[in-house]
Amino acid sequence: MRFGVLGPLEVRSADGDPVDVPETKVRALLADLLVHRGRVVSADRLAEDLWAERQPVNPMASLQTKVSRLRRALGGLVESRPPGYVLLVEPEAVDLGRFDALLLRARRADNARVRADLLTEALSLWRGPAFADFADEDFVRAAAERAEEQRLTAVESLAEARLELGEQPDLAQVVAEHPLRERLRAAHIRALYRAGRQNEAIDHYEDLRARLADELGLDPGPGLVALHTAILRQDPALTAAPQRRTNLPAPVTDIIGRSAAVAELRELLAVKRLVTLTGAGGVGKTRLAVETAAELVDSFSDGVWLVEFWDNDDVVAAVASVLGIRDDAAPVPLLDRLLDSLRDKHTLLVLDNCEHVVEPAANLVELLLRTAPSLRVLATSQEPIGLAGETQWPVPTLDSADATRLFAERAAAGGYPVNPSAPEVERLCKRLDGIPLALELAATRVRVLGVAELLARLDDRFSVLTSGHRGAPSRQQTLRAMLDWSWELLTEPERVVLRRLAVHVDGCTLEAAEAVCAVDVLDPLARLVDRSLVTVLEGPRYRLLESVAAYATERLAEAGELDAVRQRHYDYYSGLAESAALRGPKQRDWVRRLDRENANLRAALDFGGDLRLANVLSWYWYLSGRLSEAKRAYDALREPLDPQSSACLAGMFLLTGQTVAIPDTDDPESQWFLGFALYRSGADLGASERLIEGVLAEPGGDEWVIAAALSVRASQALVRGDLDRARADGERAQAMFRELGDQWGQLQTVFPLAALAEIAGDYARAERLNRDGLRMAEELRLWSEAADRLTGLGRLALLTGDFAAAEDLHERARKLAARQGYRAGEIHAEIGLALGARRQGDLDAAENHLRGVYEWNRHAAFDPGNALILAELGFVAELRGDADTALALHTKGLTVARHIGDPRAVALAQEGLAGAHSLAGDHEYAARLLAEAAAARNAVGAPLPSAERGDVDRVRTRLRDSGTSLS
User: Fold this and answer.
1) Residue 182: what pLDDT?
2) DSSP string, 229-258
3) Which residues, at least 6 apart from 184, have a Cβ–Cβ distance to it below 8 Å?
4) Helix/strand/coil (H, E, C) string of 629-697?
5) How is 497-564 classified by DSSP, letter by letter?
């Protein structure tokens, strides 16, 4: 039996005859099972998908009825398996599976003609939009979107193949439908140019450039820029590289002997969600994983990302960091934000070196795969991850032909050509067991020793080290022999430097190498680089290969130097942390420098285990969004926490949304941080105010701490409606932070000062403050702050009547906050979208936004937020003519406003009540309420600006029309 989902749902027998599947719900059940081709779908999930919020009285019984009817149509293909049902179907029995298989074959094809034919066949399977009968159903949306993205990718690939063949693809229609796809536009522009239509090609480039700027705020990618330049120069080559979303490193050398392995792994990842490459160190797991992932970049619409794990890594923080999710977006835990970020993404994660963190890595992968149905994971580890559904793929050593080829190519690159067919080369590669790392290391020595001498040395080494470590795999023993042999070739200065470099984690600078090695490192280091024992990274930074580092560490211990060198490592990195100017004009540069050294700082802290370094690093951890790392570090200390560290740890817990007891402290900086954390988390505004007042009551304090406390008090005052205090404190804090040159501090004053400008109707100043804040947030990589500043700009666009810009800015803010898992930021943006929808008359959309925000605010116990939301919901009810609902909502809003003590919130509720009463016919009382609201606003120096008078003016007009006298 064959199934079609690339268009309206269809079922055909093996003979091609149509098979009738009656009833919409039964067809929807089939579509749901086809979405999960060959995978079990839980009964709960199926019931939720079929009936959503309108569940039958007994959904499980109803589901069983639908399953029975589907079985009658399909025979025994629908099988019950805990916890639900599965459709037993081969991948290519579904047209979407056949489509995927043809795309995979096309990607592997070296010949453009073959590639074009396969892609043409794949695209011919489409009869309309994927899952066309159920386009409005949530359960097919992600699969349909992925299929459509794959279709467009196939269209682009076919166009490129036809161009390669000298043919002219007709792309005008698809370009008109998808004008912002850069790869598609590049193919179209090349086709136009090749057809002799150079001016049209240039016009299409300019059209794309303008659209990208206007609609997305982006410039064309480098490939398109290169293509445009080539057209202007009439370059016959006209090559253009596709833009890709990945952090995979570009290979320095070609991979040898792994083409079949890459092809097999690509096919596995098309059907398996977790594939683990296993094998000994040096066998080439990482290189094979990266090569495979690089070929799949176009297959994953949301990117292919490499995450490298080190000893004692926080795996959640490591993955989040690669995906750009900061660790300081209260109150949602980092893990939850990571899961939310990947939930609907079509992503490939490459998790490297999992053997260091196999248990936490397994726990995280299980959660990720359960939460994100479109996620694939390709892992490397010396042992399996150990999850159900894992596909283990042992990485083999190279066969004789590939091993000799690899050795010969690397030797030639080092200036010593060898004949790969020579008997001694074959013997050498055989003795090295075809392990790529061993072959690479040997090739760096052949120039000095020649192949015969290499063989002689290997013979001596292996005769001594044949047993290796008990229980170790044979290949690991061979790699150890290779490393022992490499060690024997080093001079004593080189050995000293190599073994002492091993205490670094994730590389080091030359300065760090000199300090920790405590010898002249320059010449030995250069020779170690030449011999491929040390890798040079951008910076420059110097890093040992993993196996080399492990070996060198053992040599360091054998030399009796391990503790002394680790102490120097600790001294250097603790000194670096202490010298970091994280408050002041060099703040951004120092944060980035410490980011590069984070793994070394962690290692130093683990070695020292003292409070002093943890306290020194605490502000860096906050600025860089590494709050969970701070908690881990404090928990691991070998001495009791002092008051400063207790306060810091409590603040970190608060900022990540956890409830903790607030410790007593007399330290002003600790008091400020606790007050700041209590305010930012919304945990206890009163306690926050008491702590901040305590800081400011002490005369002669540290200027930075005073400025920081003033910025918090300004925001507190704004929430309470004390505008004079908010303005005085905000402006003073801003001036002090500017004098100190501290960007983070200046950023903290943006919210209260921009809000005050907005209240006063000075929208130009409010916009300037928000734009400055956005720039500073982006420079410091404080993406949660950046999202809030975009929301601020969106609110100003709304007030100035630019609804399109307002919606765009609020959407950008919402998406940025969502990528960070910053739920509060999403809520801020959602409010802006609700305000815009109501002001444009879309009351249903406004209410949908507002109801979600209201529930979140209630859960977070954030009364200031709900004062506004209740007022907005009340205005929606009034505009619908529902006086009773409006009255109830505004009455509730007035209670909340009086509780928080904000006169402006009270005035807003009174204005809402005036609208409700005027709608109900109580015109005199409505007039009195409007007068009381105006007096309250005037009393605090915040009369309504003209742009915010829409609701009041509407009520006043209604009262005038009724003949009611207005003051």
Assistant:
1) 84
2) HHHHHT-SS---PPP--B-PPPPSS---S-
3) 152, 155, 156, 159, 171, 174, 175, 178
4) HHHHHHHCCCCCCCHHHHHHHHHHHHHCCCCCCCCCCCCHHHHHHHHHHHHHHCCCHHHHHHHHHHHHH
5) HHHHHTT-SS-B-HHHHHHHH-S--HHHHHHHHHTTSEEEETTTEEEE-HHHHHHHHHHHHHTT-HHH
Q: Which of 27-31, 434-438, 631-635 has the highest mean pLDDT?
A: 27-31
What class has domain 259-391?
alpha beta
Q: Nearest 10 degrees: CA dihedral of 261, 265, 267, 268? A: 140
Letter for the amino acid at 255? I
Q: Does domain 1-167 have CATH number 2.40.40.10?
A: no
Range 100-103, long-range pairs (CB < 8 A, 24+ positions) = 100/150, 100/270, 101/270, 103/150, 103/153, 103/154, 103/157, 103/299
Distance CA 660, CA 650 (A): 6
**Residue 17's CB: how many other CB atoms inside 10 A?**
8
H or E element, residue 376: strand 376-381
Whole-number Å distance between alpha carbons of 711 and 731: 9
CB-CB contact of 391 with 274 (8 Å): yes
Q: How many CB atoms lie within 10 A of CB 226?
A: 17
The Cα 584–Cα 854 span in angstroms is: 39
Q: What are phi and psi of 696, to 5 degrees?
A: -75, -15
Cα separation of 438 and 460, whole Å? 16
Looking at 213-222, 594-603, 829-838, 891-900, which range is the least confident one? 213-222
Residue 382 in this model has a pLDDT that exceeds 80: no
What is the sign, positive or negative, of the torsion defined by CA atoms of 697, 701, 703, 708?
A: negative
Q: Following DSSP, what letter does each residue of 919-933 receive, concatenated?
A: HHT-HHHHHHHHHHH
- The residue that leads in pLDDT, 238 or 545, is 545
> What is the DSSP annotation of 148-166?
HHHHHHHHHHHHHHHHHTT
Q: Measured between alpha carbons, how far is residue 520 from residues 157, 493, 514, 894 in Å? A: 54, 9, 7, 74
| Residue from 604, 600, 598 nearest 626 by CA | 598
Q: Which residues contact 379 (CB under 8 A, 6 or more apart)?
A: 274, 275, 276, 277, 289, 350, 351, 352, 354, 361, 365, 385
Of 214-218, 435-439, 476-480, 823-827, the least confident? 476-480
Q: Is residue 684 scored above 90 in pLDDT?
A: no
CA-to-CA distance for 746 and 734, rounded, in angstroms?
Answer: 6
Q: Which CATH number fits domain 865-967: 3.30.70.100, 1.20.1260.110, 1.25.40.10, 3.40.50.10380?
A: 1.25.40.10
Between CA 403 and CA 266 the distance in angstroms is 23
Distance CA 790, CA 905 (A): 24
CA–CA dist 75, 19 (Å, integer):
11
Question: pLDDT over 90 for what percent of the chain?
Answer: 37
Q: Are strands 304-308 and 348-352 parallel, antiparallel or unpaired?
A: parallel
The answer to whether the Cα torsion of 326, 327, 333, 338 is positive or negative is: positive
Q: Does 459 score more than 60 pLDDT?
A: no
CB distance 831 to 843 below 8 Å = no
Q: Supply the pTM of this predicted model.
A: 0.62
pLDDT score, position 237: 63
Tokens of 204: 């299409």
Per-residue pLDDT tens digits for 955-967: 999 999 888 888 6
Q: Contact at 8 Å (CB) between 747 and 773?
A: yes
Beta-carbon contacts of residue 845 (< 8 Å; ≥ 6 apart): 833, 834, 837
Q: Report d(CA 605, CA 631) in Å as an integer.
A: 13
Q: Count CB atoms within 10 A of the CB of residue 690.
A: 13
What is the overall mean pLDDT for the chain? Answer: 86
Reported as a single tens digit per residue, the pLDDT across 513-557 is 999 999 999 999 988 887 768 888 888 999 987 778 888 898 999
Other Cβ atoms less than 10 A from the Cβ of 733: the count is 26
